[in-house]
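Subject line: Sequence and fold of a protein, written as structure tokens
Body of memo: The sequence and its backbone structure tokens, given next.
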Amino acid sequence: PADWALSAPVVLARSASGNAYANLSLVADFAAGGSTARDAGTVQMGGHDPAQRGFTVQGVELTLDGAVDPYLRATANVVFGLNTAGESFLELEECYAETVALPAGLQLRAGQFFTEFGRINAQHPHGWDFVDAPLVTARFLGPDGLRNPGARLSWLAPTPFYSELFLTAQNSAGETAHSFRGTAGESEHEHGTGGAEGAMEPFGRPLVETRVRGAGDLLYSARYAASFDFGANSEHTLLAGVSGAWAPNGTGGGARTQLYGADIFWKWKPASHHKGFPFVSAQAEVLLRRYTAAGAVLEHDDEGDADDHAAGAGEEEHGHVLPRESLWDWGVYAQANYGFRTGWVASVRADYAAPVKSGLADYERELHGARDPSRVARWRVSPALTWFPTEFARVRLQYNYDRCCGGTAAHSAAGFREAHSVWLQIEFLLGSHAAHKF
């Protein structure tokens, strides 16, 4: 029609009354740049991070959303991309239905979806303020984020401020359950662009493929979030949340992982703003992981190379025993954004991730430290500048300074000692894309 505009939804079907059943949109993210690291994939940890010199297709996301009927609405996100070998892949990121008419502030969601854990995890990459994922979320929640098929029940409490509780049950296996029962080889995100740090088996132990045998094999998570507006004209908004996730991990029977997180977000926007500018925002997340690893034996072949096997009676003479133990890791990121003029945002982020406690024997500290890059202490500082020529496109320039802490073994495990990286990202939107969660 003559009044169609680029921002108008692409209607796939209409009801008798003329209302759209589903809207269609497409968001594409591309990056170009390079790193002083020998292999950029050893520095970049996220599945959608630019992880090679030259050009990267970070993701082309097709979204369908709309009303199913008066009781349900549904959303589907399908991602197209190219991996570092130039091979095309297709990924179902989310596809779920949720209720719109339950009483008492309740809502039920079912399908494939991102777990409500922290602030970043539930966001799609085009909703991020930076080109890449924070170190700690990529390390603990996986290169592609924590998501799986399941169901979520939320309760919006009848309080004068925003107050919501989320309870979720999902499958605990696969590459999108990285710290839990992610199977060997899948955590590398073989179809994506990054995640090189997840290529090794966690904590130097073999992973055992298991299936859901009962309710105890599921991944359970909970989150509570509250938000407050304050200031003379409610110019300030503060949102804080706490999260937890619990499930078995893949190292053996009775082995479990616990994840805990806390996050905070603050934004200032004056009442006299124009198209949302100027503004200042800041957010931070801290995560703690307790990984109870089952015992294992590292056997040696004739050439002296170590092979991993589950620990059993009488096997100690064939190799080095890794005892059953609880391993603790933590990480944090903090970032700030300053929208100093319409369409321009200056940002900076600082990341840190490291082990808290290993409890390892001398042998494991020496050998295992060189085998397991997923626990090497490292930090990153990332300034960025983003330009929005319109609300349907953006261009972002980002610099990363990465440094690996520790000695030679740690540098060998991580694949670098320090690295400088520069990335230019371009994003555009076609169609009508639903508003992102605040």
Summary: Residues 280 and 338 are 5 Å apart (CA to CA). Residues 362-371 form the longest helix (10 residues). The chain is about 5% helix and 50% strand. The helical segments are 135-141, 362-371, 408-414.
